[in-house]
Amino acid sequence: MNRNELLERIENVVEEILTAFDVDQPPIPVELMLRNPPDGMWDGFDLTELSTTFLTLSDRFAPRMSVVRLLARNIVRSEWGIERELQGIVDDGELIRYFARAIVMPRSMIDELENPLSASVSTRFEVPEEDAEIRLRDLGEIK
Predict the structure, then answer these.
(1) For residue 27, is the peptide bond before it cis, meaning its omega torsion is within 30 degrees of 0?
(2) Does residue 143 sit within a domain?
(3) Residues contacting residue 126 through CB under 8 Å, at least 6 positions apart
(4) How many structural domains is the chain composed of?
(5) What's the pTM value of the predicted model, to 2 decimals?
(6) Residue 80 lies in a domain
(7) What pLDDT does 28 receive?
(8) CA 73 to CA 67: how far, in whole Å?
(9) What is the rounded end-to-end Cα distance, in angstroms, of the chain?
(10) How far is CA 81 from CA 73, 75, 93, 133, in A?
(11) Tens digits of residue pLDDT in 97-123
(12) Where are the alpha helices (DSSP H) in 21-126?
């Protein structure tokens, strides 16, 4: 599978996740997704077991990005993720970050925005502005 096909697969898997959790608007409940996945998806993770050194604190929404990256890693390593051919991104930090941003800022929800700007996306999706900008660039919304 080439890179573009893998990125498209990631976007499709995100839509499957949103459907499984009945999420249709931001912010995406990443903590709930990590802690209480539906049966047959991935193993739940108790966030109280995390060390505070795990969390990035450079921005008010940075801890959320740390959690969603952990969620992305759990998904790709799970049987559910392997069935969706995501195992190829397990050791690729860039693709894990792409997957994490796709989970927390789904393409379908970005597409619904009339004039997506990184600051408004940051606030609406509760993500650092830098991550919002990268996601918008990934989707071709900004140069």
Answers:
(1) yes
(2) no
(3) 26, 27, 61, 64, 104
(4) 1
(5) 0.92
(6) yes
(7) 98
(8) 10
(9) 26
(10) 10, 5, 16, 27
(11) 999 999 999 999 999 998 889 889 999
(12) 30-35, 62-77, 79-83, 93-104, 107-111, 118-125
